[in-house]
Design a protein that fits this description.
By secondary structure, the protein is an alpha/beta fold. The chain folds into two domains: 5-146, 3-Layer(aba) Sandwich (Rossmann fold); 179-416 and 424-476, Dihydrodipicolinate Reductase, domain 2. It is built from twelve helices and 17 strands. The strands form two sheets. Strands 7, 8, 9, 10, 11, 12, 13, 14, 15 and 17 form a ten-stranded mixed beta sheet that branches. Strands 3-2-1-4-5-6-16 form a seven-stranded mixed beta sheet. β8 and β9 form a beta hairpin. α9 (257-270) packs parallel to α12 (436-455). The longest helix has 26 residues, at 223-248. The chain is globular. The protein starts with a strand and ends in a 29-residue tail after the last strand. It binds 6-O-phosphono-beta-D-glucopyranose (BG6). The site of 6-O-phosphono-beta-D-glucopyranose has 3 residues, from loops. This is Glucose-6-phosphate 1-dehydrogenase.
């Protein structure tokens, strides 16, 4: 791998603090940063190099998996420099170009990480281009764009048009950090490295699929962004639809970036669009009120800092989707996400159909339970297969048992998604980044819903913090015996 210069715009902000700096440090620990790689942290604040080093130390100390290693940190620190500048001021760009021109230690391969306001992506890229900072004469130039890519279909399209004036698709790395999670990548391995389930992985055997992401945390200090976004844009348009593509895609021709992305985009394009008069039947939104999380009292969304008092932004969103292709026709996919929910959990739960004949029904009171495959993404990484077995004893009673594979050995902490993704940028591997047609197809799925919700601004249902969300969201299910899988305990749910 060739060395590069990582320029982080927005380096004094939250993303850099909690994700980027720790991820780059962990790459240093693993010896994966190519010799000569440099990191230019850029922000508006007047930090000296010493201040940057202090801040970086604090950021890393808070996140380092095995504590901060002084020798490794010394190597890491030697790569760091600070560039003060305001991205909205035109002078900043020639100054940055001059820095490159006058310091030969900065490798000519440059990755610009946009840890900045999404509204500024287009302008910053345009300015970089105007000042020849995207010129590839002395090495590659790549731009990493955080989500959200646009605010809706139209603005995503406008942003794309603007970027394409200055960049080729191979230079644009649209990040969805879910794709960098080891356990998310495991969905592909589970599906395509094991032959056992493939014959069952379709409409003939699968009743429905649920994809849940729930969080304990509230909106915290992010209301400025979140109140304009809401759960549908923040989680479903990006992370949950990406998870859905991995569960539903056809085997790709190879694991190369384009082959993979071709299959993922086909799934998104096959999702049946939701007409405006079906939005209520296929979606549900709500907002958290006060409640208790792990015994602690928590505020209502409307009482969080910077949330407008009459906000109807959803902090919970659920939707039912159909993928109109041969494999999945008629199988509902239920997606759900919420803040301030009972547990932190990301799980894909696949419910199989009931056996065609209930042979054992007369011998027991309860109906046979279906088989489930549960793919735990976080906090625990597991693969569980729930099956029915006979209980010991003379009577013909059955019960559920779970074949349980924990996917992480012992207490080995997971690597963070950003580590893989930041390294992939240096390698030029786009397989875990979004191609524009994927982003566009995902907006097409959620856009009709957002349009209806945008018109209904008078009222939003609520759910108490610390709960599993609003009970009424159950109405998305097609049958009475279906319900959200809230707990991984098979004894408590069907
Ligand atoms: C981010 C969202 O993209 O993903 C956040 O903006 C959300 O609102 C986060 O909390 C969830 O990511 P993770 O990795 O903590 O599951």
């Amino acid at each position: 791998m060739e060395p590069c210069t990582y320029v982080i715009f927005g380096a004094t902000g939250n993303l850099s603090k909690i994700k980027l700096m720790p991820a780059l440090y962990h790459l240093e620990v693993a010896g994966l940063l190519p010799e000569g790689t440099k990191i230019i942290a850029s922000g508006r604040r007047a930090w000296t190099l010493e201040k940057l080093h202090q801040e970086a130390r604090a950021m890393i100390r808070a996140k380092a998996r095995n504590g901060l290693d002084e020798a490794v940190f010394a190597r890491f620190q030697a790569r760091l420099s600070y560039f003060q500048g305001d991205l909205s001021v035109a002078d900043m760009y020639p100054a940055l170009a001059a820095l490159f021109a006058s310091h030969s230690e900065y490798p000519g391969n440059v990755a610009f990480y946009m840890a900045i306001r999404p509204a500024d992506f287009g302008t910053v890229v345009e300015n970089l281009s105007t000042h020849q900072l995207l010129d590839e004469t002395h090495g590659w130039r790549r731009v990493i764009i955080e989500k959200p890519f646009g605010y809706d279909l139209e603005s995503a399209h406008a942003l794309q048009q603007r970027l394409m004036r200055y960049l080729r698709e191979e230079q644009i790395f649209r990040i969805d950090h879910y794709l960098g999670k080891g356990t998310v990548r495991n969905v592909q391995v589970f599906r395509f490295a094991n032959v056992m389930l493939e014959p069952l992985w379709n409409r003939n055997y699968i009743d429905h699929v649920q994809i849940t992401h729930s969080e304990n945390l509230g909106v915290g200090s992010r209301a400025d962004y979140y109140d304009g976004a809401g759960a549908m844009r923040d989680m479903i348009q990006s992370h949950l639809l990406q998870l859905l593509t991995l569960v539903a895609m056809e085997p790709p021709a190879s694991m190369e970036a384009e082959a993979l992305r071709n299959e993922k985009v086909k799934v998104l394009q096959s999702i049946r669009s939701i007409p405006s008069d079906a939005v209520h039947a296929q979606t549900y939104r709500a907002q958290y009120t006060s409640g208790r999380i792990q015994g602690e009292k928590t505020k209502a969304y409307l009482d969080e800092d910077n949330v407008p008092p009459c906000s109807v932004t959803e902090t919970y969103a659920a939707m039912k989707l159909y993928i109109d292709n041969w494999r999945w026709a008629g199988v509902p996919f239920y997606l759900r996400t919420g803040k301030r929910m009972a547990e932190n959990q990301s799980v894909v739960s696949i419910c199989f159909k009931a056996p065609p004949k209930q042979f054992f029904r007369t011998s027991q009171l309860q109906k046979m339970r279906p088989n489930w495959v549960l793919l735990g993404i976080q906090p625990c990484a597991y693969l569980k297969l729930e099956m029915t077995v006979k209980e010991p004893g003379m009577e013909m009673h059955t019960r559920q048992t779970t074949l349980d594979a924990n996917l992480r050995e012992g207490d080995v902490p997971a690597t963070d998604a950003y580590e893989d993704l930041l390294l992939d940028v240096i390698k030029g591997d786009q397989s875990l980044f979004l191609r524009y047609d994927e982003v566009e197809a995902a907006w097409r799925v959620v856009d009709p819903v957002l349009r209806v919700w945008a018109m209904e601004r008078d009222y939003i249902p609520t759910y108490p913090a610390g709960s599993w969300g609003p009970e009424e969201s159950r109405r998305l299910f097609e049958r009475e015996d279906q319900n959200w899988r809230d707990s991984m305990n098979p004894a408590t749910k069907n």
